Amino acid sequence: MIAHLLKKVFGSKNEREINKLWPIVDEINALEPNMQALSDDQLKGKTEAFRQQIADGVPLDELLPEAFAVVREASVRTLSMRHFDVQLIGGIVLHQGKIAEMKTGEGKTLAATLPAYLNALTGRGVHVVTVNDYLARRDTEWMGVIYRFLGLTVGTIVHGMDDAQRQAAYNADITYGTNNEFGFDYLRDNMKFSPEAMVQREFHYAIVDEVDSILIDEARTPLIISGPVEQTTDQLYDETKPKVIKLKTHQDRLIHAVFDEALEKLEQEGEGDAALEPLLKIKRGDPKNARFLDLIAQRPGLKKKLERLEGQLSTQKLLPQIDEDLFCVIEENQNIVELTEKGLKLIYGGHSDDYIVPDLDEALGKIEDDDALTPMEKRVQRQKAEAVHREASERFHVTRQLIKAYWLFNKDVQYVVKDGQVIIVDEFTGRMMPGRRWSDGLHQAVEAKEGVKVAEENQTLATVTFQNFFRMYEKLAGMTGTADTEAPEFKKIYDLDVMVIPTNEPMIRLDHSDVIYKTEAEKFRAVVEEITELHRKGQPVLVGTISIDKSEKLARMLAKTKVKHEVLNAKNHEREAEIVAQAGQRGHVTISTNMAGRGTDIVLGEGVKDLGGLHIIGTERHESRRVDNQLRGRSGRQGDEGSSRFYLSLEDDLLRIFGGERMSSIMERLGMEEGEPIEHRMISKAIENAQRKVEAHNFDIRKHLLEYDDVMNKQREVIYRQRREALSGESLRPTIEEMIRELSEKTAKSFADEEVFPEEWDLKGLRNAVSRQFGFRLNTDRHTMDGLTPAGLAELIFESAMKAYEDKEVSFGAEQFRGVERMVVLQVVDNLWKEHLLAMDHLKEGIGLRGYGQQDPLVVYKREGFDMFADMIERVKAETVGFLFRLQIARPEEIAAKEKARQEKVTYSHGGDEAKAPVRRSKKKVGRNAPCPCGSGKKYKKCCGR
Ligand code: ADP
Ligand code: MG
User: Fold this and answer.
1) What pLDDT, on a 0 to 100 scale, did the predictor assign at position 689?
2) Residue 937 phi, psi dihedral angles, 5° rounding
3) What span, in angstroms and rounded, lies between the C-alpha atoms of 928 and 662?
4) Which of 54, 210, 285, 897 is surrounded by the fewest CB atoms within 10 Å?
5) What's residue 924's pLDDT?
6) d(CA 352, CA 365)
């Protein structure tokens, strides 16, 4: 009460803020006569003068009054519209980077020309964001007249344009387009291979029209560009699988026989060598053999004895004698798997050469020493040897992983198969870990074994939420008729203040209280009755529904009454706008979903004012008050007559699901009869409470999405920055040199040891590692190695690598090589980033299902996501350098073709229409006690399922 009084005396905070702007409006108004006195050319000349002032360092705020006066005068001369004073206020608020709440019909389109012009004078581009292509085009044409008159350029971005057209539109001073187009262009730009192909410039200043729709409703789902998954290795797993099964069958048979032999010996001679040797064979051939494990369990001490014998034979280098009989050997605790000669012959028969990984070091040494070869031939030979080595290694690797899958990994112990997926079981807790994958191909091997394929038809190539996209703008502003109810969200997520701008004319629309019926059928009957009655009078009616379904239902009922009506459910925005624009004509009845035709001006027909203006009927409360206000706002624009009423029933989703006990008890108290509506303030209050609850819940969902995206957003920034750097034209050579140095140090560290003399380092392993990473043979003769420290070794590798690198550069020509470096970095970054996105998707999906005790899944996601990212960065370095050292003269046209092919295959998606449905259910049914799919870690019934 007191608060109310105070407000009356001193005005609300909003009023006080607005009042501060009136003096600026006075200033603009005072300039009007001067403007009117100017010729067209003189008026236009102002643009150049302003630009000069900006160049001289005059801040935009100082130019604002005159610039606004110029735009207003230009508008009068070209469109015969003179910005109302409240539109000037709106324009100032927009310039300040805030949200201007201006009711429908107040002329937001025109108001936006003021800050758009002023900020475009900087030459850094202004984006005006609309909800659909039709409005982007309409507003460009409509407002473009003013801008062009003043010498500015305007562009439009719409669906289906090519890059050249986009570039031109973005290069204009002011660019109109939808949020989706701006967002996808951003993602696409960051997949480009040359800076010239990028279409966007800066994210300087954006004015978002219908800002609640875009920054809140559409922000529920991220923008995603996806493309088909390339899985070339999968085939190799499938090809190898039968071979490994064959191997397993033979080994099993063998082990069975050996076991019988071992048992016999045990009985005859006890745990002596005669029995231990066959048992060791089993340990090495099938460490998880059930009979063997039972035996070990029954005879304490046997395990120790076996290990001792194994150790002994190993130092005497006699293990091969034990292994000889086996097809493959599995050293479980060292995670080593080897095929024996026998095994190789069994599965590869005559082709076993293909599978024996050649000794690369030896091969390279031979080529090096062959004096008959020219340097060019040597290079070709080297590459051939490496290719052979690589292929054989890969085949071998796959075989090994499959062997592990068959020998060491058991279904329902280490993993389970559920819904066609292999899910890891945590060995300590026994909990399932959906989303986690074993690395290095092991997971694929287990999938091949189980005959399941992760059905990954499409994978994310790039993604961003609107929240993170729009936060990139240096200055962001918005306008809409309905923002106030969502002010806290705008503030928290976008740091945007909402200012409510007074209307030009006082609002006189009559908003009746809600009427509420027991059943939906009664409600619709009442709606039809009201429509019929008003229609008879000739008063136009606009009926809002919450879904296309409901629109059609109502239309069917109306069809029986012979009331002529339009149903608006077309997906075509232009057609939609045409129909809605007519909704204010005498006798028109228009049925549409709440959001359809947004942004279209409804002008009243002749004589309609006297009939009471446009009447709005709401057939259900939306879950958000804001959307209801949108519908209401279609009527009573610019001081027009108008009215509105909402019809509800107890069967409506909102009341049913969220109304709760309170609603029922109110109903009971008021006494509700069949067919008899009630109308009471208490009900409206209860409904509003229900709406608040849902609004808060939806805000939570969006916040949640954002929290997860924030993790990736940081990573995306790093990657995109790296890409941009690569594209900037600066030489990448210093970066690559740095990578080479790091890799040299890493390699040196794993082979050199302070405590050991260099002669005793594993030089062969070192040479192999160097040639794998850098593709050249490291000189390790005694003279070079003598007295070398680990740091010295790192230096040696680095120096030799740089020398090889410089040779490469010379053979390509320095300038061309810079281009090659760029291409390689981009390709490697893109590939690994894509893989990383996939892994992050898996992680996110899985994490919500994991059910952590006390741990916050978001924290787990952050931590694991960070580890994965760090890992990826390391791989970027290793692969980039590896690539560069192996490269032959690259053909740019090949890369261009590759990029083009990739672009043609991608899909663009955004949850779009889904977001407009009032109550959203996830497609898959979630059990009440199951973990909530939102990833909160709570039970579904305690979280989103509440
Ligand atoms: P909003 O987006 O705020 O709902 P619009 O920009 O669609 O409103 O404008 C509504 C109508 O008002 C349009 O027909 C427009 O021509 C008209 N209008 C806007 N500003 C003025 C003005 N200053 N003088 C005359 N008509 C105006
Ligand atoms: Mg508008």
Assistant:
1) 85
2) 90, -10
3) 24
4) 897
5) 41
6) 24
109 Cα–ligand 2 center, Å: 6
Helix or strand or coil: residue 578? helix
Per-residue pLDDT, 744: 93
Distance from chain centroid for Cα 829: 17
Res 455: pLDDT: 47
Q: What is the pLDDT of residue 161?
A: 93
Q: Nearest residue CA, atom 23 of ligand 1? A: 83
501 C-beta closer than 6 A to ligand 1: no
Tell how far the Cα of 538 is from the centroid of ligand 2, in angstroms.
Answer: 27
Q: How far apart are CA 716 and CA 187, in angstroms?
A: 10
User: CA–CA separation, 257 vs 477, rounded Å?
Assistant: 80
What's residue 896's pLDDT?
58
Cα 1 off chain centre by: 48
Atom 9 in ligand 1: residue holding the nearest Cα? 107
Q: What is the pLDDT of residue 676?
A: 73
547, 593 in Cβ contact below 8 A? yes
487-513 residues labelled b (16+ CB within 10 A) or e (exposed): bebbeebbebbbbbbbbbeebebebee
Regions of the chain where pLDDT drops below 70: 1-11, 228-233, 334, 350-358, 427-431, 435-436, 439-440, 454-458, 569-571, 659-662, 672-675, 848-854, 888-905, 911-946
Q: How far is the CA of 213 from the centre of ligand 2 (A)?
A: 12
Rounded Cα distance between 422 and 437, Å, is 9
Confidence (pLDDT) at 914: 30
- Nearest atom in ligand 1 to 79's CA: 16
942 lines ligand 1 (CB under 6 A): no
CB of 601 within 6 A of ligand 1: the answer is yes
CA atoms within 13 A on the CB side of 750: 12
- Residue 421 vs residues 227, 301, 443, 452, 800: alpha-carbon distances, Å: 21, 40, 10, 7, 47
Separation of CA 224 and ligand 2 centre (Å): 27
